């Protein structure tokens, strides 16, 4: 039976094109399919200028999920669409606008949307305290899927069943200063966001129609680790003892100010602590798989190799 009947997009629109998934996706598309027209989308005017310099052959657009007119312009004639959203976004409004624009331009043949939640989980099982916080890590992807699922559009959900490896770059200053990994005791797989971008690109370029309307959970198939095990790997790579500090007191002290400034929202660190606590209570579902390996056609990056590559950035 031949499954290769999905049209390959001639123009692909990439949201978040300057970020840690969207940019690797754009680079891979440019390399693998130079005949495909790239439309790189960002909501930041400064970013669009940088993208124009880095991708001179691509069309660069400024668009905002809350501005229908900008979405209509950015998606005009786009046959492939990559969707990723920032944490704490109002997904109800954003995805409602996006669906309306996609349907208005009526050109999409395949859409890939990044999500991140426990498979088979439902939003009603999320603790009330997390739901009351509003849109955030614990709830926003359920809301997005509800809106997108009702649209009938040809979507592949790429579910990140893992933690992004570059999170350790983001907290490097704390690690250097404290000589410890300040992070709750999680039990979770890992994945390199660059490979997430490549996976999304490969799916968009694939003629295999079986990717449509699927929910694919991905991780690197190798690292299902507790946080203290991560600290041990980091110690091996650095040849220096890095302890693990999973206390709530240290976590809130180190991250409250950073994250409230970053997200312009009060209570983010406390919210994430509560989310990690909920995650720990439900971590029996965690497992490694080979979905990423099969799509990439190689073994994905391991956390140890990522630490070795980025040694100067993580400590």
TrEMBL record:
This is NAD(P)H-binding protein. It holds the Pfam family NmrA. Gene3D superfamilies: NAD(P)-binding Rossmann-like Domain, UDP-galactose 4-epimerase, domain 1. SUPFAM superfamilies: NAD(P)-binding Rossmann-fold domains. InterPro entries: Ergot_Alk_Oxidoreductase (IPR051604), NAD(P)-bd_dom_sf (IPR036291), NmrA-like (IPR008030). Residues 11-254 form the NmrA-like domain.
């Amino acid at each position: 039976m031949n499954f290769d009947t999905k049209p390959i997009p001639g123009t692909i629109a990439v949201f978040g094109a300057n970020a840690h998934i969207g940019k690797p996706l754009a680079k891979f598309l440019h390399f693998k399919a130079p005949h495909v027209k790239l439309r790189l989308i960002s909501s930041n005017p400064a970013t669009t200028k940088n993208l124009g310099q880095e991708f001179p052959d691509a069309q660069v657009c400024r668009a905002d999920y809350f501005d229908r007119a900008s979405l209509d312009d950015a998606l005009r004639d786009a046959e492939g669409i990559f969707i990723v959203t920032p944490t704490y976004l109002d997904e109800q409004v954003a995805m409602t606008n996006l669906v309306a624009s996609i349907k208005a331009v009526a050109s999409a043949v395949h859409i890939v949307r990044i999500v991140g939640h426990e498979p088979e989980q439902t939003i009603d099982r999320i603790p009330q305290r997390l739901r009351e916080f509003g849109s955030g890590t614990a709830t926003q992807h359920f809301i997005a899927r509800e809106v997108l699922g009702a649209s009938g559009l040809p979507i592949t959900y790429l579910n990140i069943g893992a933690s992004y490896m570059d999170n350790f770059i983001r907290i490097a200053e704390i690690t250097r200063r404290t000589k410890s990994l300040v992070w709750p005791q999680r039990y979770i797989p890992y994945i390199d966001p660059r490979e997430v971008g490549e996976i999304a690109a490969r799916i968009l370029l694939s003629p295999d129609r079986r990717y449509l309307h699927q929910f694919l959970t991905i991780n690197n198939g190798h690292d299902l680790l507790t946080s203290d095990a991560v600290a041990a790997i980091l110690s091996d790579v650095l040849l220096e003892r890095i302890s693990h500090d999973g206390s709530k007191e240290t976590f809130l002290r180190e991250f409250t100010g950073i994250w409230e400034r970053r997200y312009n929202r009060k209570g983010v660190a406390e919210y994430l602590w509560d989310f990690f606590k909920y995650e720990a209570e439900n971590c029996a579902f965690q497992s490694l798989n080979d979905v990423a390996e099969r799509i990439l056609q190689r073994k994905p990056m391991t956390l140890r190799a990522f630490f070795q590559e980025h040694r100067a950035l993580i400590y």
